[in-house]
Write a structure and sequence with these properties.
CATH class of the largest domain: Alpha Beta
Radius of gyration: 30 Å
C-alpha cells in the first residue's frame, strides 16, 4: 500500500469522525462546533477523496444507510466450515509450530466473527460465524458499523473474515448511560454480540460496533505473491481496518509476544490472546486441517505467571447471602505487573482440598491475567480452624453441603452482611449518591466490621489506617471517598426516603409523599393509612408498608442516627400545572429532545406524573422513539393495549412545539 494512499484513507477516517461529531452537535444538541463554511469545505474534501480512492466508509455523511426493522435474522450456510483454532500457552510450542517459516502474529480479538462479501465494489452480504456451519445474515447491521467500507475500489468478488468488536471506552460510555445497575452490560463481548444481531439496525449504529479484518478468503485475479502479509496490506489499501500484526520468524517470535503482552493493558479492543498465521499461503493450505482446527494458524493463550509465597492467615468474609467465604491472605508478590496479597478460596471444600494452613508455602497466579488464585499448597498443614461465629455479627455459623460443595453460612437473619442490598441502595445514584461506595466496597467494609447501621457510613474516617491498606484502596481512594461522603451529606428528602428501601416506595412515590406533606418528614413518619392513601400513587399496600417500617423502634432509631449526619436541603415545590396527575409513564430506548431519560423523568414528575421501570396494566403511556421495535417493553405494551408514544408525541401532551430541538 503506497504511503500516499494510506495517508488519504487515514484522512478520510478522521474527516468522517469530525463531520459526524459536528452533525450530532448541530442537529441533536443544538450547538455548533464548526462553521457551516468549514463543514462544507471538509465535506467537499471528503467527497473528492472518496472519488479518488474509490473507498467509501460506513458512517460517511455522503451515505444515507436506511434503518430497517426485521422480524428475525435469516440464516445462511457458509461455503466452507469456519473452524476454531488449536491453542497453546507456551512460546516454545509456537516456535516449534512455526518452524523455519515466516508468520504473522496478531491479537486474538474477543468479539463476534463476521464474514463480509463484496461484489462490484459494493458490500452485498455480511454473515455471522454462528455455529461454524450456519450463520445469521446481518448485512443491514454491518452497513452501520463505525468503520466498514460500504464501497471499495476493487470490483471483483471479495470475501473476508474479521471480528466485530466494541472498544472498552465505548462499552464504558454505553454502560454509564444505563441507570439500572442490574441492566448494565457485563462485558464488551456480550454487548457486541447483542448489538451485531439486532433486528433494528438503528440500535446497532448507536453502539459503534467496529470491524477488524483478520483473514482474506477470496479476491479473484489479485496477485498477493503467496503472502498473507501482502493480503493484509492490500485490505488496508481498500479501506479496511486490519487487526494489528507483526511479521515474525522463529527467532523474533518471543520478543514479539512480549511486545503484545506489554501493550495489552493499554489496548482498547478486548483481546483474549494472540493468533499466529503462516505467511506462506500455499504452504499453510497444504497442511490441511483436522476435524476441529485448520493447520495454517494457531492461537496463543497467555500463560499464567506463578509465584511462591507464604500464607499468613485465612480471613472469613461474610456476604449478603449469608455465605462466609474463606480468603487467603499471603505475603505480597508481584504478578502480571501488580502487587497482590489476597485470593478468594471460594468455599470450605476447596480450602480443605488444598489443606491450607497458616505459614504454608503456596503458589499463586492470576487467572486470565486478572483474578488472583492459589495454584498449589506445597506444605499442606491443614491447620485452619473453621469459625463457629460470624465475623460480622457474631451469630452462629453452620456448614451446609450443596451438590458436594461444603460452604459456611451465618444463621443470624439480622446479620449486617445480609443487609448489603439496603446499604447499596442508600449509597446509589438516586439516593445519597456516594461516589466510590460500590456494592463490592460496601461488602468489604461490612465484612471488616466498619458498618453496622446507616450512620456508620459517615464515620469511615475512624478506620482510615485499615482502609488505605485494603486491596484496591490507597490514600487517594480514601481521600476521594471522604470527599464523596461530605458531598452526599447534603441531600434532599426524596432521595433520603427512596434510599431507606421501604417496600414499594420508589423515587416517584418518595417525591409525591414529600409534595403532599410539604416536606414535613415528622408528619410523614406519623401519618396513618387514611392520610397516606390520599397521596396520588399510594394505595393500601404501600401505606401499610410505610406504617410497618416506621412502627419499628429499631428503624426509627437508625433513621434518626442517619438524619444527624445529613443536611436536608429544601427543594422548591413545583409550580408547574399537574397535567400528568394520576398518569404512569415508562421510558425506554434513547432520547433526542432531552439530555437523557433522567431529565425526561423529572419533567413527568414535575407535572404530577409518575415514571416507572416496568410496563404493567397501570401504565398510561410507554415512551419509545422506536415505536415499531420488537423490544420486550413494546410487546408488553401492545399486549396490554397501552399506547406507545414517541418523544414528539410526549411534547404534544406537554403542550410544547413538537419541532423544538
Amino acid at each position: 500500500m503506497s504511503e500516499d494512499r494510506e495517508s488519504k484513507i487515514r484522512q478520510m477516517k478522521e474527516m468522517t469522525a469530525r463531520l459526524l461529531e459536528a452533525s450530532k452537535a448541530y442537529y441533536q444538541e443544538s450547538r455548533e462546533i464548526m462553521s457551516n463554511y468549514e463543514y462544507d469545505q471538509l465535506y467537499d474534501r471528503l467527497l473528492a477523496l472518496e472519488r479518488e480512492t474509490g473507498v467509501v466508509l460506513a458512517g460517511s455523511p455522503s451515505q444515507k444507510v436506511g434503518y430497517e426493522v426485521l422480524s428475525e435474522l435469516p440464516k445462511e450456510a457458509h461455503e466452507a466450515p469456519m473452524l476454531s483454532l488449536d491453542k497453546t500457552k507456551e512460546v516454545a510450542a509456537l516456535q516449534d509450530w512455526l518452524g523455519g517459516q515466516k508468520g504473522l502474529l496478531s491479537w486474538k480479538l474477543d468479539g463476534l466473527t463476521i464474514v463480509l462479501t463484496y461484489e462490484d465494489g459494493e458490500l452485498v452480504k455480511a454473515v455471522t460465524r454462528g455455529n461454524g456451519e450456519i450463520g445469521e445474515v446481518i448485512t443491514n447491521n454491518a452497513k452501520t458499523f463505525a468503520n466498514v467500507p460500504l464501497r471499495i475500489d476493487y470490483k471483483g468478488q471479495l470475501i473476508l473474515r474479521g471480528e466485530a468488536v466494541i472498544t472498552y471506552s465505548d462499552f464504558q460510555r454505553i454502560n454509564e448511560e444505563i441507570e439500572d445497575v442490574e441492566a448494565k452490560y457485563k462485558n464488551p463481548r456480550n454487548l457486541c454480540s447483542g448489538s451485531v444481531r439486532q433486528l433494528n439496525n438503528k440500535i446497532t449504529a448507536e453502539r459503534r460496533v467496529r470491524f477488524q479484518a483478520f483473514m482474506l478468503v477470496k479476491a479473484d485475479q489479485v496477485d498477493f505473491g503467496n503472502s498473507r502479509m501482502r493480503q493484509f496490506l492490500w485490505l488496508q489499501q481498500q479501506g479496511f481496518d486490519v487487526v494489528d500484526f507483526r511479521e515474525v520468524d522463529r527467532d523474533s517470535l518471543p520478543e514479539a509476544v512480549n511486545q503484545f503482552a506489554g501493550a495489552i493493558g493499554e489496548y482498547d479492543i478486548p483481546s483474549d490472546g494472540l493468533v499466529l498465521l503462516m505467511d506462506d499461503i500455499a504452504y499453510g493450505e497444504s497442511l490441511g486441517r483436522t476435524a476441529k482446527f485448520p493447520r495454517n494458524s494457531i492461537a496463543f493463550k497467555w500463560a499464567d505467571e506463578l509465584k511462591e509465597t507464604s500464607l499468613k492467615e485465612i480471613e472469613w468474609s461474610a456476604s449478603r447471602t449469608g455465605l462466609i467465604n474463606p480468603v487467603a491472605i499471603f505475603e505480597p508478590v508481584e504478578l502480571e505487573g501488580t502487587t497482590v496479597s489476597r485470593a478468594s478460596v471460594h468455599n470450605i471444600s476447596i480450602m480443605e482440598a488444598l489443606k491450607l494452613g497458616e505459614g504454608d508455602r503456596i503458589t499463586v497466579y492470576k487467572a486470565n491475567m486478572i483474578i488472583p488464585q492459589i495454584a498449589e499448597n506445597l506444605t499442606q498443614s491443614g491447620n485452619v480452624k473453621i469459625p463457629d461465629k460470624c465475623p460480622v455479627c457474631g451469630g452462629e455459623t453452620e456448614i451446609r453441603q450443596i451438590n458436594d460443595v461444603r460452604s459456611l453460612y451465618c444463621t443470624n437473619p439480622e446479620c449486617q452482611a445480609k443487609r448489603i442490598k439496603s446499604f447499596t441502595l442508600l449509597a446509589s445514584r438516586d439516593a445519597l449518591n456516594i461516589d466510590g461506595l460500590s456494592e463490592a466496597t460496601l461488602e468489604k467494609f461490612i465484612a471488616a466490621g466498619f458498618i453496622h447501621e446507616y450512620a456508620d457510613i459517615f464515620h469511615l474516617d475512624q478506620h482510615r489506617d485499615a482502609i488505605v491498606t485494603m486491596e484496591g484502596f490507597g490514600q487517594r481512594s480514601y481521600d476521594n471517598l471522604l470527599a464523596a461522603l461530605k458531598a452526599a451529606s447534603h441531600t434532599t428528602l426524596p432521595r433520603l426516603i427512596y434510599g431507606l428501601g421501604i417496600t414499594g416506595i420508589g423515587q416517584a412515590n418518595a417525591k409525591m409523599l414529600c409534595r403532599s406533606f410539604h416536606s414535613d418528614f415528622t408528619a410523614m413518619r406519623k401519618a396513618g393509612k387514611e392520610e397516606l392513601t390520599e397521596v396520588d400513587g399510594i394505595g393500601d399496600v404501600l401505606a401499610e408498608a410505610w406504617i410497618s417500617y416506621f412502627s419499628s423502634v429499631k428503624n426509627n432509631a437508625q433513621v434518626d442516627d442517619l438524619l444527624a449526619e445529613l443536611a436536608i436541603e429544601q427543594e422548591e415545590e413545583s409550580r408547574e400545572e399537574a397535567i400528568f396527575a394520576g398518569m404512569v409513564f415508562v421510558i425506554t430506548g434513547s432520547v433526542e429532545h432531552f439530555a437523557n431519560r433522567k431529565e425526561l423523568q423529572q419533567v413527568i414528575e414535575s407535572r404530577g406524573g409518575k415514571a416507572t421501570g416496568s410496563v404493567t396494566s397501570k401504565t398510561t403511556y410507554l415512551i419509545n422513539n422506536d415505536t415499531a421495535s420488537n423490544s420486550s417493553k413494546n410487546k408488553k405494551a401492545k399486549e396490554l393495549g397501552i399506547p406507545i408514544i414517541s418523544e414528539k408525541d410526549f411534547l404534544k401532551l406537554l403542550g410544547e412545539d413538537e419541532n423544538a430541538d
